[in-house]
Give the backbone structure.
Amino acid sequence: MMLAQIKLSETQTLLRFFHSPELKNYHTHELHLLVGDVYVLIKADSFKNVMAPVEARIQALAKTITKISDPQTAGPGFGLGPVIIRDHHDQEIGMLKFRAPGTNLELDAATSAIQEQERINMKEQEKQTLAGIRYNSLRSGAPTFAGMESEQSGFSYRNGDHHAFLFVVQSYRDNPGFAWPSINMRFQGGGTIMKVQSPDYQPDLVRWSLPRFVPDKHEIPLWKRPPSPPRVDATLSDKEAGKLWDAIVASVRLRYLAVAPKPPSAFDQGNPEKAAADQKALDEFLSTDEDGRPWTPPTDDDVPAR
């Protein structure tokens, strides 16, 4: 249910609505804006009717978004295609998906992902996953990926009426952070057919951004949908896919000077006296029962007999 539509400027509109009909104190906030000729949507949720800080935050974030022409010379910030966000965050997570007939490329990057002490050992996982299946090993080893150590795996197989392949690479770093994010990339082809959209396709951004409870009158019920299409062959041979994979892995690199030093405000810990008072109030709340009395652990006498 729409609660508010606020026109902040000629290029910015703020929308506010209930996220679901069951939770009346759970809201979704959207800021639709134009940055040059680029459409940008910033979306956030608020809880317990605390909406003002959330809307102030997304409006402040919108002021840091600018259009760029060359990512290599754009300077510090989080790049999103033709725009860049020049703001400081606690963490950054990025996802890239590229689909073409018979192939699918996905890249995930996260600055705060924990670095496991032990390597994944993709070769061993490959053997366990494909046990009992005849497959061809296409790639293995530890290439340099985005300037970091990494591990890769690649294989192909033919199952009945289709040929498919899968390549995976995972970066490793000793000092996780913004300058050295965790990057995982997958390149696969064949198998379940992927629907390719026409270059002239215009997405329904209004329908896409609506909350879950809004019914879609154009959606086909499950029992009326046609059966799944048959699996298809990969459009690339193993040799072609391997060459393309090597070129993609070599092309992924971190932007020069993409990470700027944090401003002094980022290290501001706030009022220590207020923090201590808040911690004391939280401790007292956690140490009391539902009647407000001091909580004590149950004894053997309190446990009901079976």
Notes: The mean pLDDT is 81. Helices lie at 52-62, 122-129, 205-209, 238-251, 272-286. The chain has two domains: 1-67, 86-198+208-268.
